[in-house]
Amino acid sequence: MMKIKYLTYLLMLSQMAFWACSKKSSWAPTYQQFNPVTSLTNRSFSKPGSEDLPWVRWNFPPETAEIIELERQLVDMKAAGIAGVEIGQGGEPTLNQVEAVLKKANELGLKVSLKYKVGAPVPGTFSIKHDFVRKTLSAADTMILAGKEFNDSLPGKGTILSVAAYKIIKTPIKGSKLLTIDHASGVLLTDKIVQKNTSGFFGGSTTGRLQWTAPAGEANWILITIRVVAVDPQPEVFSLEGTNLLISGYESYWTESIKILLKANGGGDIFVDSHSIDGFGAPSDVWSSNMAKDFKSKLGYDLMNHLPALIDEGIDRVWGGRGGGLDIDHYYTYSDHSDVRIRADYNKVRTDLFVENRIIPFTKWANKYNLALRLQPEDVPTVNIPDQLDVTYNLTRPEHETLSSGDQIDVYRPMASANHISGNTWYSNELAAARSLNFAQTFQDIIVRMNKCFASGQTKGIYHVYPYTFNPKSVWPGYNTFGEGNFSNSWGPRNPIWAADAPMINDWLARNEQTMKQGLAKIDLAVYMQNYSFPAPFSAGIGNVRFWNDLALQEHGFTWDYLNPNLMSLPQVEVSNQRLFDTGPAYKAFILNGLLQSAATFNPAKNTLPVAMAEKILAYAKKDLPVIIVGPLPTRTPGNTPSEDAVLKKILAQLLQQKSVHSIATEQEVPVLLKSLGILPGAQTAKPSNLMSMRRHDPKTSSDYYFLYNQGDDQIPAMPNRKEERYKGMTITPGNIFEEPKTIRVKGLNYGTKIGSPLSTKITLEGSGQPYILNAWSGEITPIAHYTSNGKQVTVDIHLDVDESMLIGISKDPAHVGLIFSSVYVQSTDADGVIQAKDGSLSILANKAGTYHTTFSDGKSVQTKVGATTDKMDLTQGAWKLTVEDWQPKNKYGSLGASGAETAKPIISLDL
């Protein structure tokens, strides 16, 4: 008995250490090398360089694409303001094509990204039967009445991993597959199997027969056969062996010439898409060759005894033809509910293995060729995947996508939060795939979606997609991977809006990116989140896909990050000067929200808290950092450590006794409480609004930069609000977010949802010095001459239309942006505006004649008399002539190949 107690104590200590933080590593992502930041000056802002310009996903058909045409397209992209190309969607380029693209890109100064494809790395080169292929679990079961015998072949396909019988506590209700078992009654029968073979993974058996009699009594039994099945012909992602196989595949596939060209390109990357099986960005595999051994090594108990806990609803929702539906008979839950604890432990281990065995070693290898790893740790379906926060923190180039966001800023926050802790400035977006909007999508949609991206902490857009010109079977206007009425968009010269406006739009993107990469992010609040189930609009249906549901916090102007145990365990994330991580985001308060993630169906760690994190939060409170508790406190720890629950309860009781801790019932109450405590947002409007902000602080130039965005609305409404008139008929995520609903021609899934109103308000911004406007459209930087300042904050007037954005800077010495600091400025005026010339002189703006009163910061006042202004001009009776190009097939429609892609542009004139 003493031995059992001792082992239990060791197990508890092991799991406490595990949930405190993951294994420490001296490795850190090399983002400084691959993601250089342009020092913002008036010159760099006026003419942004390649570091800040957008990229494109460039689709071409490898079997027919001509090298001379590929080279011509690269020249066109460079001229349009594109700085990088991602190749590989639509087919694996040939080695000759890769080499030619690299040579021309190096000549033009363009970066090249190679999209990861199925296989290692070429499709068909990796066997689905390889021992280290990607795997998951399937389960088949047979109900056995009490006292009855099972004497039959075992059901299911795949390598048999485990066979066990359990007492049934509750059968599924109608329409459900959830079956409750008494795990403690389990009888392991794997060693009783006969008639086996060696055809499975590592010589395991794919067949077997079992003879077993269920115990007599009142309870019936379920015989569960769990098998390992292949997911996709790729090397597995959770083992080092799988990663080494992937690396060796690349090494043997690339020619020496390509390797030299990659090194010379210096700053490209290998891109991994979000899908669980098309790439490995968000792997939902539920097994790997070493999983049982690795799990026991990290947690000290045997996962093999708890395999039914891994067969939950999430396992059957892998996206894609090869992974869609494992024909699982039932999902299993334990009668003591400990299965959710097992899944929390498992998901934590799986996250750590993904980082340790795939992200880090693959990145180290890619760096040898001057390549970064760009990866999307998110996916369309709602399943359990590795923790976005942990994965992002270890990525050189993290990426999200508009397709999976529901156009809601909160979905982007977890990945941005990890960047704000690490200091990494690369956070790109696959922009802007939308169903059925090819050629219907406009640059207005790009602007709105990128406004949401910039407001969330993202910095770079990567257009989806730039298609190749033609293939032998394509008709006008040319080749497209998705078809003319499918996923948007067909960017490039074939698209009239690209031909007219691409350089201007791309410069706008670049100026915003350059500004939003300066210095460090400054964020108002830190919110605790441990998560393995991230919302996805195509799975969520009615309702929202936000983590923080209520809109009051953002409408009051607050910004926030999400922190998990690993980020909180970093040595720099400590309290000083009543700020959490003062030299980083400088959070003003910490929030523990028991109502967070109400839509997260499969997150086994929801509303839990490790003991180590409770101790950290208590330490924050004791150092006078305000701690806000929303809704219910966690009642248990996340892992299979029920003995720690009492310890957690005791620590939380101490937490509640601290004077810096405040409890409220709802999310809606949070902003009012914060303001009552003197905690104000870094960007505060006169009253609640739809204004979203992102702040960067550059200590080198003593400057603050603000991205301000008048968001029309979140696109999927919160569940309690969906009956409001403004949400009438809005039940799913629309693909078009700019067009007016009354005039848009696209219906169905992609109806217009332009909601909102113009915003004119005073806004108070943290920072001291001279405020100025950075015009992302023109590249001009102009001082703001009319404002007030208290030495720590600056208050200015802003005017933004619906879904419009602007950049404001504040600098103690604005010389780096070509401005001089003016100690005298206008504090109030009844004129329509004030401008400051380069020499510092001030002038008022007036729309009509009259006398205007102006008060300066030095206390002086002046009156300015404006004489007659220019009369209004009536243009309605003028002669108007409209001249347009009519884009149409140059050759007969239906012509194939190069001739079918040619466009005629006759001029049409019309007198109005």
Summarize the structure.
With 912 residues, the chain is an alpha/beta fold. An eight-stranded parallel beta barrel has the order 1-2-3-10-12-13-14-15, surrounded by five helices. It is globular and about 105 Å long.
What's the main sheet like?
Answer: 8 strands, parallel, barrel
CATH uppermost class of the largest domain? Alpha Beta
CATH superfamily label of the largest domain = Glycosidases
Radius of gyration: 30 Å
Write down the CATH topology of the largest domain. Answer: TIM Barrel
Oligomeric organization of the protein chains: single chain
Q: Largest beta sheet: what is the strand line-up?
A: 1-2-3-10-12-13-14-15
Helical residues, percent? 10-25%
The CATH architecture of the largest domain can be named as: Alpha-Beta Barrel
Q: By helix and strand content, what is the structural category?
A: alpha/beta
Low-pLDDT segments: 1-10, 319-323, 539-543, 716-721
Count every beta strand, where a strand is a DSSP E run of 2 or more residues. Answer: 41
Could you say which overall geometry the principal axes of the C-alpha atoms support? globular
Count of domains: 5
**Strand proportion:** 15-25%
Average of pLDDT: 90
Q: Give the N-terminus to C-terminus distance in angstroms.
A: 97 Å
- Helix count from the secondary structure assignment: 20
